[in-house]
Design a protein that fits this description.
The structure holds two protein chains of two kinds.
Chain A: E1 2-5, E2 10-14, E3 19-23, E4 29-32, H1 34-44, H2 49-59, H3 64-80, E5 84-87, E6 116-119, H4 123-128, H5 130-133, E7 149-151
Antiparallel strand pairs in A: 1-5, 2-3, 3-4, 4-6, 6-7
Helix pairs in contact in A: 2-3
Chain B: E1 3-6, H1 20-36, E2 39-46, E3 49-56, H2 61-64, E4 81-87, H3 88-91, E5 105-109, E6 112-116, E7 122-126, E8 131-136, H4 144-148, H5 152-161, E9 165-174, E10 177-182, H6 189-195, E11 202-205, E12 208-212, E13 218-221, E14 225-228, E15 254-257, E16 269-280, E17 287-291, H7 293-305, H8 313-325, E18 328-333, H9 340-350
Parallel strand pairs in B: 3-4, 4-8, 10-16, 16-18
Antiparallel strand pairs in B: 1-2, 2-3, 5-6, 6-7, 7-8, 9-10, 9-11, 9-12, 12-13, 13-16, 14-15, 17-18
Classes of the chains: A alpha+beta, B alpha+beta.
Chain lengths: 153, 352
């Protein structure tokens, strides 16, 4: 399975160890933790799940049995948020070989599951279409509501 | 303030051939001007560039210019942007083509942006012709927020075409440097900016500013207005002479035009030295905590992107570059607002 970052209405900025993503259609925006940012870069590079797993195992200490399911879950979360699309690999069977129990090189930081934090406090602003749709009493700070920050899934 | 009243159509504007609608909108302005009997021109320096506003009759002039007064400039024979403005009620001139679905922004051509607002305002910009059209049904019914941030849509598009970025942010500073105060509504940015009035820090806006990227990014003030929730008006008794809409409180937020009241407290802009994210804590002390560029972008970008029609990837990239270029801090607001100017001056002193 190959994953592709959606373009056009999904915009993102990559920093050293964080990625900020905005969905211009839904009004949701996201941040990725360090490992999530690594995987985001691998998605952009066109890596397969096996390649992602191998890469992460080369950078963090962890077991394959722990890392690959965590990456799969993360990818499913990205799909569920419509931030990426998936497609079958063009040439099945070309994935990089995966060591069954890779031994973690010493000195690597411990693996932490890739995570996506989702922020929805702008959705209301977008749905209200604040510049366009509000009545005359509120814009531009029409409704002050506490930000909703959640861990996606 | 400098302005002049001119005869009708003193400087014909060549419309871009690519857009029949833009031509139609311009013809509507010309008809309105003829019906009104006069065109009033005013010039401003916006984002360091010359802008000419051409009003068909006086109705919109008094509603839209107070927030821009601190940017008034001498007339320019070749303004970088010309905006033609009229309303139907006072000029008895309908919009030639009725508005389609409201709340939509469209690209009619590579160089043309069009936006209808439910409030009735139509904004059309042709970057090719460096000309915009702004129309509303009735100047007397213009919402107060349009008066507080006039032509925001047009300025956002046009400044973007000039490589500048309109941001949802307040700003204060000295001629040597200033800060952007960013965050969604209610975060404390406007309160912080107004707490600096009367200090060594000058005020460049409480809701929207423009930022010019570069080796040394520069903040440009857009509006000298300030808004306060009606229940808080008592806290700003010293600004009472600048209050524009007392009779319509509390249905509207209190809208202040500061240029006529405390012009020396205002600034047209300064170098950008830092980005601050105010956060109301309820604790006694104010603290400053360095944050990552990503955290800064999360506070700055969404509230900017989702308030400005047709904002997108280019805006996001400019904002990303900005937070990489200057340091960002979380400004944990204590209960004593009087310390805020010194806290911000302290941050700026560190950046010297």
């Amino acid at each position: 399975m190959l994953f592709t970052v959606k373009t056009n209405r999904i915009i993102h900025e990559t920093f050293d160890d964080e990625v900020v993503i905005v969905n211009l259609d839904s009004g949701s925006y996201y941040s990725l933790n360090t490992v999530g940012s690594d995987i985001w870069s691998l998605i952009e590079a066109g890596s397969t799940l096996a390649e992602m797993t191998a890469h992460i195992l080369s950078r963090y200490s962890g077991d394959h049995s722990e890392v690959q399911p965590a990456i799969q879950t993360f990818l499913q979360n990205l799909l569920a948020e419509s931030l990426v699309t998936s497609s079958p690999e063009e040439t099945p069977g070309t994935e990089a070989p995966i060591p069954a129990s890779p031994s973690a090189p010493s000195g690597l930081p411990p693996f932490a599951a890739p995570q996506i934090s989702k922020y929805t406090d702008m959705q209301e602003l977008l749905l209200m279409d604040v510049i366009h749709d509000v009545d005359e009493t509120g814009w531009p700070n029409a409704v002050e509501k506490v930000a909703v920050e959640s861990q996606a899934h | 303030m400098r302005w002049r009243k001119s005869l009708l159509n003193p400087r014909p504007i060549d419309p871009p051939r690519s857009s029949a609608y833009f031509q139609t909108a311009l013809e509507g302005f010309e008809s309105a001007a003829e019906n009104a009997g006069a065109v009033f021109e005013r010039f401003y320096t916006v984002g360091g560039l010359s802008v000419c506003l051409r009003f068909a009759g006086p109705a919109l002039l008094s509603r839209l210019t107070p927030a821009l007064e601190h940017l008034a400039a001498i007339p320019s024979p070749n303004p970088s942007l010309t905006v033609c403005l009229w309303d139907s009620a006072s000029t008895r001139t309908d919009l030639p083509t009725p508005a389609r679905s409201a709340g939509k922004t469209e690209d009619c051509a590579d160089s043309l942006l069009l936006h209808y607002a439910v409030s009735g305002a139509l904004s059309v910009l042709s970057t090719q012709a460096s000309t915009a059209v702004y129309w509303v049904p009735d100047a007397e019914r213009l919402p107060y927020y349009e008066c507080g941030a006039p032509l925001l849509t047009i300025l956002h598009w046009w400044l973007g075409s000039q490589g500048q970025q309109v941001v949802h942010a307040a700003s204060v500073g000295t001629e040597d440097g200033g800060v952007l105060l960013v965050g969604k509504g209610g975060s404390g940015k406007s309160t912080t900016a107004k707490a600096c009035l009367g200090s060594a820090l000058r005020y460049a806006g409480d809701d929207y500013c423009a930022v010019q990227p570069g080796t040394q990014p520069r903040i440009h003030s857009l509006y000298s207005s300030g808004k306060v929730c009606a229940p808080d008006v008592a806290h700003y008794a010293h600004l009472e002479p600048a209050l524009s809409n007392r009779a319509r409180l509390p249905e509207e937020k209190a809208l202040y035009f500061l240029a006529g009241h405390i012009p020396s407290a205002l600034s047209a802009g300064f170098p950008l030295k830092a980005i601050l994210l105010p956060q109301v804590t309820g604790l006694p002390q104010t603290r400053v905590v360095r944050i990552s560029p990503a955290a800064s972008l999360i506070a700055l970008a969404p509230s900017t992107l989702f308030q400005l029609p047709h904002a997108g990837g280019a805006d996001f990239s400019r904002l990303g570059a900005l937070v990489r270029q200057v340091p960002s801090y979380r400004l944990e607001l204590g209960t004593d607002r009087s310390v805020l100017p010194d806290v911000i001056l302290g941050i700026l002193a560190e950046k010297e």
